[in-house]
Write a structure and sequence with these properties.
Keywords: Acyltransferase, Lipid biosynthesis, Lipid metabolism, Membrane, Transferase, Transmembrane, Transmembrane helix. This protein has a single domain, classed as Glycerol-3-phosphate (1)-acyltransferase. Helices cover 42% and strands 15% of the residues. Helix 1 runs antiparallel to helix 2 and helix 2 crosses helix 3. The chain is globular.
């Protein structure tokens, strides 16, 4: 059965490649966003991951904002995209991944080469411009994945883009649960684990519940990026029930 599900996942990925190659060039932003959202939800369903969106923001509307979330797995991108298609900021080495890197680029991912100040500045200026143009931008401020039950420090640099663009920050908490409501170990994508190994674990898991928890908006007016980053981290930590120290 896992082999059959893997075949269906590979077929879904192939459909995504064909769509990006032959449909995206002739599609506007709204149509592309709808395709990405639908494709992401389809991928998760094939992996037997059921997405539940939980609103703890206390707000009825959704003002334009910079979206941030904790980072557990490669699935996080698709969980968020199943709610709203976003342009993600990701490490530049993802661009070299076979198929996945190309798909990410076609979906509007912004690749960041860490340690290259000129490149970081260029990306930063692009983020400010896109935020001012009301484009949905998201990133994972931990900078890498962490096992569930842990929350790494949030890097503050990219929060400055929200401050300069004069938009708030919208934090989300992401968690993957088993049938007993506990963190599902098959979701963790950490260390030297490969994408293939992670996919094998997920397909063998027999299903899991992905929760995308929308948290209260954080104003950036007159704020410092470190303050905003810490507020976002504390909010995410509270939703996950983990400590935000360190």
């Amino acid at each position: 059965m896992p082999q059959f599900r893997l075949f269906r996942v590979l077929l879904h990925v192939f459909v995504g490649v064909v769509t990006c190659a032959f449909v995206f060039p002739f599609s506007g932003n709204e149509k592309r966003a709808a395709i990405v959202k639908r494709w992401s939800l389809g991928l998760l369903r094939l992996c037997q991951v059921e997405v539940h969106i939980i609103d703890k923001s206390g707000e009825s509307d959704l003002p334009h904002a910079l979206i941030v979330a904790n980072h557990v797995s490669w699935m996080d991108i698709f969980v968020i995209n199943s709610w709203q298609a976003c342009h993600f900021v990701a490490k530049s080495d993802i661009r070299s991944w076979p198929i996945a890197g190309w798909l990410s680029a076609q979906a509007g991912t912004i690749f960041l080469a860490r340690g290259k100040q000129r490149e970081v500045r260029r990306i930063y200026e692009g983020l400010v411009h896109e935020l001012r143009d009301q484009k949905p931008i998201a990133f994972f401020p931990e900078g890498t994945t962490a096992a569930q039950g842990q929350l790494l420090p949030f890097h503050a640099n990219l929060f400055e883009a929200a401050i300069e663009a004069e938009v708030p920050v919208l934090p989300f908490a992401i968690r993957y649960l088993d049938a007993n409501g506990e963190f599902h170990p098959a979701a963790d994508f950490i260390g030297e684990m490969t994408f293939a190994e992670s996919m094998k674990l997920i397909l063998r898991a027999g299903g899991m519940r992905a929760e995308l928890i929308r948290l209260p908006m954080i104003s950036t007016e007159g704020a410092h990026r470190r303050e905003v980053a810490q507020q976002a981290r504390e909010s995410v930590a509270g939703a996950l029930g983990v400590q935000a120290h360190g």
